[in-house]
UniProtKB/TrEMBL annotation:
Its EC number is 3.2.1.8. Residues 1-298 form the GH10 domain. It is an enzyme of class 3 (hydrolase). Keywords: Carbohydrate metabolism, Glycosidase, Hydrolase, Polysaccharide degradation, Signal, Xylan degradation. Transmembrane segments: none annotated. This is Beta-xylanase.
Length: 302
């Protein structure tokens, strides 16, 4: 096939991108989106500050815009994200009573997942809960007020809210098998699987520097998959976007049968949160970069 999404589909995978609702009026952006990608992650529109800016008052306007675009163009949706310490309104981060915070967190998960029920392929239920350079959870209002059990609580609540959505844990800097953070997340997933805590997938954000993916990346993906979860590359971008780095990254996923899809974190370099590093597959004028061809061929196409 001659597009990323169609080629990924030949092996049962998806190829997606982050989308910003504010760009859906840009015709160059939308034409690339609908030609190349068969999955979408909202870049900011499903985060807590956007969906529940004040307690029990929900707003889904810009997220709904993205979901309806995806539905009318046959694109799967990844939901991003329910429980995260960033883009969290201050009314949540200032709660210091555990019973209150537990009910606020559970209500948020339940209301947001119910609103989108049946329309989301996979949810990033908990995002970035582990500390860099450590096997332990990071400090956050959830960790500090609810303790280690908050992740399990979030996943159990999520399963009840939409039993047909896949439930993912998503994080960055967990691509290198030798990193302490990777080991911390691996232990959590192994523990969840052994105790029947519902978890279906792990998202590896894959924000890489000019060195590209760690040499152990495929090992990491296959070790997690062996625990009985799907693995996905959820926010891929690579500083300077070398063809070799992109190709090696995509091949790591292609070599692991439970690596079910890849999402890049934006379409054109000018759409990226790190645009000065030119990390994406399309240049700012919308043309394909050499990394695009490398990805298409690593997916088996071209
Ligand atoms: O919404 C306000 C808008 O009202 C205001 O006019 C504008 C002016 O600066 O700012 C807007 O908010 C910005 C928001 O993006 C929407 O554009 C924030 O300042 C900005 O910080 C925010 O950045 C996002 C970042 O997450 C915040 O944490 C990036 O777009 C988004 O790409 C990035 O995505 C994260 C993933 O969710 C999780 N993993 C890491 C990844 C990269 O940081």
């Amino acid at each position: 096939a001659s597009t990323l999404g169609a080629q990924a589909a030949t092996s049962g995978r998806y190829f997606g991108t982050a989308v910003a609702a504010g760009r859906l009026g840009d015709s160059t952006y939308v034409s690339i989106l609908d030609r190349e990608f068969n999955a979408i992650t909202p870049e900011n529109e499903m985060k807590w500050d956007a969906t529940e800016p004040s307690r029990n008052s929900f707003s889904f306007g810009s997220a709904d815009q993205i979901v309806s675009h995806a539905q009318s163009h046959g694109q799967r949706m990844r939901g991003h994200t329910l429980v995260w310490h960033n883009q969290l309104p201050s009314w949540v981060s200032s709660i210091n009573d555990a019973n209150t915070l537990r009910s606020v967190m559970d209500n948020h998960i339940t209301q947001v997942m119910s609103h989108f029920k049946g329309k989301i392929y996979a949810w990033d239920v908990v995002n970035e809960a582990f500390a860099d350079g450590s096997t332990q959870h990071r400090s956050s209002v959830f960790q500090n007020v609810l303790g280690n059990g908050f992740i399990e609580e979030a996943f159990r609540t999520a399963r009840n809210a939409d039993p047909s959505a896949k439930l993912c844990y998503n994080d960055y800097n967990i691509e290198d098998w030798n990193a302490a953070k990777t080991q911390g997340v691996y232990s959590m997933v192994r523990d969840f699987k052994s105790r029947g805590v519902p978890i279906d997938c792990v998202g590896f954000q894959s924000h890489f520097g000019t060195g590209g993916p760690p040499s152990t990346f495929q090992t990491t993906l296959s070790n997690f998959a062996a625990l009985g979860v799907d693995v996905q590359l959820t926010e891929l971008d690579i500083a300077q976007a070398s063809s070799t780095n992109y190709s090696n990254t995509v091949r790591a996923c292609m070599n692991v049968s439970r690596c079910t899809g890849i999402t890049v974190w934006g379409i054109r370099d000018s759409d990226s949160w790190r645009s000065s590093e030119n990390p994406l597959l399309f240049s700012s004028n919308g043309s394909k970069k050499s990394a695009y061809d490398a990805v298409l061929s690593a997916l088996g196409g071209g």
